[in-house]
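Hypothesis: this fold can be encoded by more than one sequence.
Test: take the structure tokens below, design a sequence, compare later.
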């Protein structure tokens, strides 16, 4: 099989409905990052596929369906987004079964800390395969410090 030249990231964001501002801020942050740093990492093009979860407000069944669509139809490698905790939690089983990691960008109630698991060095994800943004910040800071960098990630 040919080497994969891109990484597809499915973004589940509320672009309509009561959480619209959150979705637009996350989407704008992704676009700004790509404008400033490019859309290629380690020789692979990063492609974002956005799905709107917002019209129904917090509708865990909608978020779960969107995750399924992103995995099955769009063949994404990573799922990101989730503005509300129920949406993220409802998707955990689908993510685990598909062995797809997820980055939770906004959902942040206390239960997320107990639900989040990281992937092992061999890229085997525990159940469920959810990583919160705060956990990734902590991990990036540890890596930076261990490599003698004076960089701190705050978001």
């Amino acid at each position: 099989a040919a080497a994969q030249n891109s990484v597809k990231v499915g973004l589940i964001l509320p672009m309509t409905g009561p959480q619209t501002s959150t979705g637009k801020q996350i989407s704008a942050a992704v676009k700004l990052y790509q404008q400033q740093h490019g859309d290629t990492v380690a020789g692979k093009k990063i492609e974002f596929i956005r799905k709107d979860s917002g019209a129904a407000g917090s509708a865990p069944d909608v978020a779960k369906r969107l995750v399924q669509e992103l995995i099955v139809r769009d063949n994404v490698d990573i799922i990101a987004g989730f503005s509300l905790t129920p949406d993220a939690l409802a998707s955990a089983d689908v993510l685990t079964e598909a062995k797809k990691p997820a980055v939770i960008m906004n959902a942040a109630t206390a239960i997320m800390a107990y639900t989040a698991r990281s992937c092992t060095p061999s890229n085997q994800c525990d159940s469920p395969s959810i990583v919160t943004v705060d956990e990734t910040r902590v991990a990036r800071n540890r890596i930076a410090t261990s490599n003698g960098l004076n960089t701190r990630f705050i978001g």
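The beta strands are 6-13, 40-41, 44-52, 78-81, 102-104, 130-132. Residues 114-130, 150-155 have pLDDT under 50 and may be disordered.
Hypothesis status: open.
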